[in-house]
Amino acid sequence: MRYTRYTRFIKEVIVDKGGGKSSASGRSSAPELATRDERKLRTRSSLLDAALTLMQQGRSFTSLGLREITREAGVVPTSFYRHFRDMDELGLALVDDGGATLRSLLREARKESAPVSDIIRRSVTIYKEFLLDRHMHFMFIAGERSGGSPVIRSAIRNQVNLFVLEMSQDLRRLNFLPHLSTATLQMLCGLVVNTMLNAASDILDMPPDEPTLEQELLDNFVKQLRLIFLGAISWKEPVAKP
Amino acid sequence: MRYTRYTRFIKEVIVDKGGGKSSASGRSSAPELATRDERKLRTRSSLLDAALTLMQQGRSFTSLGLREITREAGVVPTSFYRHFRDMDELGLALVDDGGATLRSLLREARKESAPVSDIIRRSVTIYKEFLLDRHMHFMFIAGERSGGSPVIRSAIRNQVNLFVLEMSQDLRRLNFLPHLSTATLQMLCGLVVNTMLNAASDILDMPPDEPTLEQELLDNFVKQLRLIFLGAISWKEPVAKP
DNA sequence: AATTTCAGTGAACAGTTGTTGACAAACATT
DNA sequence: AATGTTTGTCAACAACTGTTCACTGAAATT
Q1: Cβ atoms within 10 Å of B30's Cβ, excluding its own
Q2: Which of B80, B102, B104, B165 has an alpha carbon within 20 to 30 A of A118's alpha carbon?
Q3: Predicted confidence (pLDDT) at residue A119 exceeds the cutoff of 90
């Protein structure tokens, strides 16, 4: 048992064993999965993808069944247990992926080195692209944020809080709104993130190919953010009683 | 068939038939359900209550089953169909109830004839009382708002939009923030309502009897609203190009 | 008083669910 | 080359699901 863990660690360190075990079929046409761990990871992520795909079809995660997922993933139900103890554990994996997506959004936003004019509109554009690109993760996060099982709900809440914290630290580092206290800055970021996620729900629920409706939603989103930041600018910290 | 509908209508007009059909048991101890329609309504609402009760125990509506609900309500599964075609229809009934709750919240808020000082804090207090009083409706609305089945999701969206509209009309009538255009006022109300519902999720998810945490959440909620209204005050409508 | 209407019951159905244990074959380790 | 490890499969299970049909008894109508 301990040996196994050790060898897995080795696997992760040695990147390429130099494979090429002579197989009959050609290398390029049939992709020939190399190591065992790789294959395990592959079916694992096909399970995760199956869950997301089903949710994309309108189902909510909480209503998904184990068998349903394995069916969609193209494996036999019992295979599920080789990867997750139960549905909750799969859900938590999805939460982690969603958190990673959020974090990468933040990384992308950091590149945008602040030319202060119309920064909101441009951030929203970035956000929308992200939204459409990883719409399934956002649907999951925004959808189960206050709907799903308690375990998953609180896991999502943690990830979102982390995101809020990181965002507020970013703003501080950029010396954005320097007159705000740390607590107020975090409150602001919480408000912004909630608004973001609500907008995500709205945008992702849209019937496809309705450009005017989409534009309306986006404009509304931008207006809301403008109003929030306008409030942040004229915010006065209450003075502590002497 | 038409007769039936007619007699039902009569039932609703004639308030008291003068009942007192001589029954063995006393009037006060055993409540003796009077008319048939009343009894039907009673089990109907016991089905609705059963759904809400189960959700209170951490389940999400989408994951509830028909049998589960009838079991909780204390009737046999087949009785369900006397009241609802399927779970979606029951869900829609819950949405209606939730909408009524929202509307009554608005009615309550109207009584508070604006002494502008600290109006936000007092509104939040009203809101919190409402939240705790009808916590199950709010859990349902806030939870399934972007989680549940598409039918229910869009029904909730309608109710919430209606609420937003009504709220914006109220503000206009009170001559509150008269420099805002109607569209902006609605945008503002949408933002406020989203913030309200997010706060509802947070507050209702709290572990019970943690007064300091509760106070933190409420303070944060108040701060967010303050910031929003601060933004609304200093909002300048863009001038249309001449 | 006779008749109709109907909310709630009971038994039964076909289908699906989560979970178990034994097994095969590809892989990894010795 | 021999041995152990492990991913995925198969068959089977008890439990539960939504839905059907015929039925009962009391309330409502005639």
Answers
A1: 10
A2: B165
A3: no
**How much is the pLDDT for A111?**
84
Per-domain residue ranges of chain A: 35-84, 86-234
Residues with CB under 7 A from strand D: A 1, 3-4, 36, 39-40, 42-43, 75-79, 82-83; B 3, 7-8, 10-11, 34-37, 65-68, 77-78, 80-81, 86-87
Query: At B183, which amino acid appears?
Result: A
Give residue A241's pLDDT.
Answer: 65
Residues B77-103: tens digit of each pLDDT: 999 999 999 999 999 999 999 999 999
Pick the CATH number of B37-84 from 2.60.40.10, 1.10.10.10, 1.10.10.60, 3.90.550.10: 1.10.10.60
Contact A60, B62 (CB under 8 A): yes
Segment (H or E) for A200 = helix A182-204
Architecture of domain A86-234: Orthogonal Bundle (1.10)
A58: alpha, beta or left? (left if phi > 0; alpha if psi -120 to 50): left
Q: How many angstroms is C1' of D26 away from CA of B36?
A: 10
CATH number (2.40.50.140, 1.10.357.10, 3.40.50.1240, 2.60.120.200) of B87-235 reads 1.10.357.10
CA distances from A137 to A11, A200, A211, B70, B171 (A): 29, 11, 23, 35, 37
CB contact under 8 A, A184 and B146: no
CB contact (8 A) between residue A232 and residue B234: no
- Closest CA of chain B from A27, distance in Å: 45
**Residue B95 CB contacts under 8 Å (≥ 6 apart), including other chains:** B140, B141, B152, B155, B156, B159
Determine, for residues A190 and B220 on separate chains, whether the beta-carbon distance falls below 8 Å: yes
Q: How confident is the model at residue B238 (pLDDT cuts 50, 70, 90)?
A: confident
Whole-number Å distance between alpha carbons of A72 and B202: 34
Kindly report, residue by residue over A206-230, the tens digit of the pLDDT: 999 999 999 999 999 999 999 999 9
Note the strand C nucleotides within 7 A of protein beta carbons: 5-12, 16-22, 27-30
Cβ-Cβ contacts under 8 Å, B223 against chain A: 184, 187
Residue A62: band (very low, low, confident or very high) from pLDDT cuts 50, 70, 90: very high
Nearest CA to the C1' of C11 belongs to which residue?
Answer: B78
Domain A35-84 has CATH 1.10.10.60: yes
- Assess whether A9 (CB) lies less than 7 A from strand C: no
